[in-house]
Amino acid sequence: MMDKALTAPYPAVTEEDSTAALITLHRLRPQALWVAARYREAAELVDFINLDQKSS
């Protein structure tokens, strides 16, 4: 058990854990999900631009 904790920087997160966290976050801060979605879209756009520049 201790070896696993030392080698894995983060505990495994299941889809159920993720869904529960999003529901809790939405209840606490409804706008937080909107911000998270915009941040994800921006990160994906930056990744796309970076890939496009590398291929040029």
How many individual β-strands? 0
Question: What class do helices, strands and sheet pairing give?
Answer: mainly alpha
* Average pLDDT taken over every residue: 74
Q: Stretches where pLDDT falls below 50 for ≥5 residues?
A: none
Rg calculated over all Cα atoms: 17 Å
Describe the structure.
The protein is mainly α and 56 residues long. It has helices spanning 2-7, 15-28, 30-55. Helix 2 packs across helix 3. The protein is flat, with a radius of gyration of 17 Å.
Briefly say what this structure is.
The chain is an all-alpha fold and 56 residues long. The protein is built from 3 helices and no strands.
Topology:
Blueprint: H1 2-7, H2 15-28, H3 30-55
Keywords:
mainly alpha, 56 residues
